[in-house]
Amino acid sequence: MAIRAISADEFESFLRESEYAVVLFDASWNAASKEEFRPRFEAASETYADRVVFGEIDCDDSVEIARSVPIVNLPTVAYYRRGGLIAALVGYQNVTSLAQALIEGKPIRREIEFPITSNLGRFLGALIRRS
Q: Which of 75, 2, 88, 89 is nearest to 36 (CA)?
C-alpha cells in the first residue's frame, strides 16, 4: 500500500514529489468510507505507485488544507498535476481510471457511483447525469 498520511506541514512538498498526485480527504469518523471506498483507493495506489503519489488527509486534523480544496462532503478525492488542483470529486468513484485519465492528460470526469440504496442516492445520480 503506497498511501501516505499527509500533515499540514508537508502538504505542499508532497504535491511536488511527483508530476501527479491524488489526495483523499476524509475523516476518522467516516466508517462507511473506510469500508466501501478505501479498498478502491488502495487498489489505485498500488496500480499507479510508479507514476502517481497517493496521500490522505484527515479533514478534522488538517482544517486549513481541507479549506483550500472545494470539499462539500466526504470522502473527496483531489487530483493534482504539477502541484495544481485539476479536480476534486465527492463520493465514491473509480480512482484507478481517474488516475489513468490524469496521467494521460484527459479531463477528470467520472461515472456516477452513488450507492443507489436510498432515495438520496437515486436523486443525486439523476441530477448529476443531467448536468
A: 75
